[in-house]
Every structure is written in C-alpha cells, then in structure tokens.
Amino acid sequence: MAYKSSFTSRGFRSGLLNPYGAEIFICILTSVFFLIASYNKSNFFINFKYYVITFSKPGLMLVAKPFDITNNVLVFLSNFKEIKNLNISLEAENSELKNKINRNNFLEYENLRLKKLLNINEKNYSKKLIGRILIDPYKNDDFSFVIDLGKKDGLKINDIVFNEYGMIGRVLELGDFSSKVISLYDQDSVIPVFSMETKQSFFVKGSDNKLLIKHFDSLFSLKHNEVLITTKAAGYFKEGIKVGKVKKTLNEVYVEPFAKFSDTIYVYVLVFEFDKILNF
C-alpha cells in the first residue's frame, strides 16, 4: 500500500473549494492589498488605513501594555541603581566638603585668635596647653570629663577647653595633675557669647543636647546658622573661641555646639591670666 502525503492531499487536492489553497490565496491577496495601500495616496486607501489603525489600536495597546510595564520596571531598576551609586558618591563628597569647611572655619578663627594672642603672649598673659581626655570610671553623667592637666600645669578654674571644632567646656575642678571639665551641655554651664552676623551679646545655657539662649528677648532676630563665639563679658573667658551656631524652627531658637568631647581624644586648654591685665 503506497504512502499518501498529507501535504499533497492538503495543498494540491483538486477542487475549487480547497480550504488550504483558499487560505493561501486570501493571504497573498491581503498582502498585495496592504502593499498597494502603503504606497497609494488616494482618499480611499488613506481612510481605510485610518479605520484599520483606529479599530486595531485598543487591541495593540492591550497587547503592548505588559511589555511597556516590563520595560518601565527595568528602566526604573536601572535608574534606581544609578541613583543609589550617585547618592553614595554625593554623601562622600558632602562629608569631605563638611570637613574642609570645618578646617577652614577653624583656621579662620584660629588665625583671628592667634593674632590677638600675639600681643597677649608678649606680656605673658596666656598660653595654650594640649591635654588628653582620661577615662573616668566613676563618672555617672555625659556632661563632664577629666583631662590630664592640673594645677602643676598652671590651670585654673574656668579655663576654656576646646578642640579643632570649637569650645567644649570649662575647667570646673582642679587637681595637681588632672582636672574635671564641665561641658557646654551641662545645665550648670553658662557661657557669654557674641553673634557674628547680628552683632548681639547674650548667654547660652546647657540643656542636655542643645544650648538655650538666655538674657536676650529678640530670639528670632538672630540669623539661622550664624556663628557664636565667646566674649569676655563674664570676666574670666577669653573671647574669640567658637561655641556653636544658631538654629531656628517655627517654635524655638536654640544653639547647636560645634564641638563635643567625644569628637577627639586630645583637647586644648587656654590659660588666661586676667589678674595680670588688671595689674598692668
């Protein structure tokens, strides 16, 4: 028995109503029609193409929607990764710029302070000592610390203690070889200050994590982020040491100190002998 090809029986079977042949003929005819329509500029073909596009647009949009969503998700993930890398880069750059600003501010104030100290040093009115913060196992608060300088080094009560960022506190108790320092954050700490931009004098008092402004009524007249420095209003402080900057919100005005004793191990102590000025 001879094998009968399905292709022959399907594609070349005699008869005018061969379904497969009719399908091929219709496809060829449709292709020729669309080919002619794409090049022909008559109104009929233009209107025909318009109606075809109009009626097929919802279906095409529906089919394309999942691909569009997938593409948007991929683009978002790609952009998110780039934004994350950019954010890391900007944070590193921001940190570096902050350090440069702090160094520049310190050098500016150090230059101003040293210019003033030059004349004082000629009369032996003051000196700057370098000390180290000691670990105190008996300390039960976060607002005081001990340094390895004392009476033998020439320290006195209320001598200013600071680091490269600004004032940290003042000497509260003296020993022969060590001293207890009360920080700006302590509630018993009251410092006379001067605002660099608005040119106002007042006092700041410690309050846990910030400094409160005392003896000054027009709080909101101060400028946001303006720098405060020490003055000699109280009679035992040396002027020109950075203290902090003004922070303004809708409800309050306070001062954020520049320096914390946790910033560094080593600190400076400015020994200023006011009695020599009085006797000069």
What does this structure look like?
The chain is 40% helix and 25% strand. The chain has 280 residues and is of the alpha+beta class. The protein has a domain at 126-278: Rod shape-determining protein MreC, domain 1 (Thrombin, subunit H). The strands form 2 sheets. Strands 1-2-5-4-3-12 form a 6-stranded antiparallel β-barrel. A hairpin with a 4-residue loop joins strand 4 and strand 5 (179-183). The N and C termini lie far apart (137 Å). The model is unreliable at 5-12 and 120-124 (pLDDT under 50).
Write a concise synopsis of the structure shown:
This protein is of the alpha+beta class. It is built from 4 helices and 12 strands.
Topology:
Blueprint: H1 6-11, H2 19-39, H3 43-122, E1 126-134, E2 144-147, E3 160-162, E4 167-174, E5 179-183, E6 190-195, E7 201-207, E8 210-214, E9 227-230, E10 242-248, E11 253-257, E12 266-272, H4 274-278
Antiparallel strand pairs: 1-2, 1-12, 2-5, 3-4, 3-12, 4-5, 6-7, 6-9, 7-8, 9-10, 10-11
What attributes characterize this protein structure?
12 strands; 6-stranded antiparallel sheet; alpha+beta; 6-stranded antiparallel beta barrel; 280 residues; 4 helices
